[in-house]
Specification:
Length: about 375
């Protein structure tokens, strides 16, 4: 599922003047009077308002979460309620009565690869955009550099390496070093020159899966802890955004892929990294493989790691992902199956909550708790 922001986070995004200002410049350059615009993942609808302000005849604001209710109120308060059609649904299920001249979106998180975001943009371009129509952003490039980040690395590994009880906690340590996370790595922490490892051209992109190989020669000596990753976006001609180290800090931070262990690099050492992101269901499976060669003896491998966020899962859950696993519903699954089977267009949510309490007498203390569970599934699956 796409990352869902809350209102305070949306407020932070609107208040990010670099980010919001860049999108306004791109919209001003792209939207013409009379245009039809799609605001993909509209949130509170700021891009929809800007499109109307710039003369759009019609805006289709699409958002799957409840922030769209706030967007409706904001649009009405600003006199644009009659020009914006709000659609609370996943865009891949939306059919519009007319093609869009412009599709604007910002549905990624730290990196553009956020759940089904790339699939969503590909689908919108193919089904909702008029021939020759414009996409904002047009393109995003992914960059990477080996970084020295002892404080960040220690924050996640130290609890599993040092404890007052002499316990062996190596298993969770391995898990946390297979978990990519956000960071604010700075230019002085980079041990190599940044390299572009993937380009997402939204005008031609066909697959949500992304991969790339990068190689560096260490520019200086230091202790490497992993790879810092960021994006640069081209929104329109001469208009862009960057989360690169050294650029003005945006609401988005940078990604960090830790190594299994720190590596002492010498200036001139060779570092090769393969990064792969494959969309499996609703989430990305990330894999990063590293190989470090000694500058004085290029045949000597100083370090070699094969890592994946697959390994962040506890060992107890791994068998459930095996192809020969035969699954059986737990109580939560049985509960949801019962509720969904009763959503046949004939039973109200209140009555369904009462049936749930009879069927699962030990699950809910009150009718309101049962109604809340029923309501969550209704919001997600009902027409």
């Amino acid at each position: 599922m796409l990352y869902s922001y809350d209102l305070s986070e949306y407020g932070d995004m609107i208040g990010d003047q670099v980010r919001t200002g860049a999108y306004f410049k791109a919209l001003r350059q792209t939207v013409q009077p009379g245009h039809v615009v799609v605001d993909l993942g509209c949130g509170p609808g700021i891009f929809s308002l800007l499109a109307c302000k710039l003369g759009a005849a019609r805006v289709y604001a699409i958002e799957w979460n409840d922030s769209i209710e706030v967007a409706k109120e904001i649009a009405a308060a600003n006199g644009y309620g009659d020009r914006i059609e709000f659609i609370q649904e996943m865009s891949t299920r939306v059919v519009l009565p007319e093609p869009a001249d412009v599709i604007v979106s910002e549905i990624h998180h730290i990196l553009p690869l956020n759940s089904r975001s790339l699939s969503t943009i590909i689908d919108a371009r193919q089904r909702l955009l008029a021939p020759g129509g414009a996409l904002i952003p047009r393109c995003e490039t992914l960059w990477a550099a080996v970084a020295e980040a002892p404080d960040l690395y220690r924050r996640y590994t130290a609890p599993w390496e040092e404890n007052d009880f002499s316990f062996d906690l190596k298993v969770p340590r391995q898990m946390v070093t297979n978990l990519n996370r956000s960071s604010r790595v700075q230019p002085k922490q980079l041990l190599v020159e940044p390299q572009c490892w993937a380009t997402l051209d939204y005008q031609t992109l066909k697959s949500p899966d992304v991969s790339g190989k990068i190689s560096w020669t260490a520019a200086r000596s230091g202790t490497a802890h992993g790879v810092s990753v960021w994006f640069e976006a081209v929104l329109a001609d001469g208009v862009g955004l960057s989360t690169a180290p050294g650029q003005p800090e945006l609401i988005f931070s940078r990604g960090f892929f830790p190594w299994s262990a720190p590596v002492d690099l010498k200036a001139g050492d060779r570092v090769g990294v393969s990064l792969k992101a494959d969309l499996l269901g609703e989430n990305y499976l990330w894999r990063w493989e590293t190989r470090v060669l000694d500058r004085d003896n290029p045949k000597r491998v100083k370090a070699a790691f094969k890592q994946s966020n697959f390994f962040r899962k506890s060992s107890a859950s791994l068998p459930k992902l095996a192809e020969n696993h035969v699954p059986r519903l737990n109580e939560d699954g049985q509960l949801d199956r019962f509720i969904l089977a009763k959503m046949d267009g004939a039973v109200s949510l209140g009555d369904l909550a009462r049936q749930v309490m009879v069927q699962f007498p030990n699950r809910f203390a009150t009718w309101y708790e049962a109604l809340s569970r029923v309501g969550e599934l209704s919001k997600k699956y009902s027409l």
